[in-house]
Design a protein that fits this description.
Blueprint: E1 3-7, H1 12-20, E2 23-27, H2 49-70, E3 78-87, E4 90-92, H3 98-108, E5 112-123, E6 126-138, H4 143-151, E7 172-176, H5 179-183, H6 187-196
Parallel strand pairs: 1-2, 1-3
Antiparallel strand pairs: 3-4, 3-5, 5-6, 6-7
Helix pairs in contact: 3-4
Length: about 200
C-alpha cells in the first residue's frame, strides 16, 4: 500500500519524483483564508542563495502545516522544497519572458553553474530541513540552439530557465550532484528526512 503524504507544491516534477519512490503525494495548496499564497519568495537583500532556498523550504512546510490545520486535513507528513540556480553569485529565478530565458542560456553556455534545492519535512510537530547542491556544466550553445530551446516554452516555469528532464538534457555535458535535486526534489535528502521524523519510505 502506497504511503500518503502532502506535497506543498503544484510542481508536476516533484509529484512524479515522490511517486517514483513509492509514495502517494497529495497537493497541498499554500493559501490562507483570503486566498493569497502564504509564502513570499522574494530574496532578502544580500541573502546568500543557500540560506534563501532553506528559508523558503522551511516557510513552505510551515505554511503547509498551517493550511492542513486550518482545513482539518489528515495528519500526514508535509514535504516542501525550493530550487534556485546560481551563477556568478546571482540567484536566477524563473525567466519572465523569452528574452530573459535566452540571456540565461547564454550565461550557461560552456560553463558550470550551481543548482541548490532546499527540502523541508514537517510531521507531528517536527520540522527538518536539508540542502542539495549540484554543479551542472553546459556545452557551448549556439544562438540557433538557444532560440530553438526557448521556442519549446520549456524554460518559463522553471528556476534558472531550463529543465534537466526535458530538451535541455542534450546540452548538459556533466552533472556533479543530484539529478533529482536539479529536477526540484532531491530524493536522497527527502527520504532521509522522512526517516528521521519517523516516516520511513520503505
Amino acid at each position: 500500500m502506497l504511503k500518503p503524504l502532502y506535497l506543498a507544491s503544484q510542481s508536476p516534477r516533484r509529484l512524479e519524483l515522490l511517486r517514483q519512490i513509492g509514495l502517494a503525494p497529495a497537493v497541498l495548496l499554500l493559501r490562507n483564508g483570503s486566498g493569497r499564497v502564504d509564502v513570499d519568495e522574494t530574496p532578502k537583500p544580500n541573502e546568500p542563495a543557500l540560506e534563501y532556498v532553506l528559508r523558503l523550504a522551511r516557510a513552505k512546510a510551515e505554511a503547509g502545516e498551517s493550511a492542513r490545520h486550518r482545513r482539518n486535513l489528515a495528519a500526514w507528513p508535509i514535504v516542501a522544497a525550493d530550487t534556485t540556480v546560481t551563477l556568478d553569485g546571482r540567484i536566477l529565478g524563473k525567466p519572465a519572458d523569452a528574452e530573459e530565458a535566452a540571456a540565461m542560456l547564454r550565461h550557461y553556455s560552456g560553463r558550470s553553474h550551481s543548482v541548490l534545492t532546499g527540502v523541508a519535512v514537517a510531521f507531528q510537530g517536527r520540522l527538518k530541513v536539508a540542502l542539495s547542491e549540484s554543479a551542472v556544466t553546459f556545452q557551448p550553445l549556439s544562438e540557433a540552439e538557444i532560440a530553438a530551446y526557448v521556442a519549446t516554452r520549456e524554460p518559463f516555469d522553471k528556476a534558472g530557465g531550463y529543465g534537466i528532464q526535458g530538451h535541455a538534457a542534450m546540452f548538459i555535458e556533466h552533472l556533479s550532484g543530484s539529478y533529482s535535486g536539479v529536477m526540484g526534489l532531491p530524493l536522497f535528502e527527502t527520504a532521509r528526512l522522512l526517516r528521521e521524523i519517523g516516516f520511513p519510505v520503505i
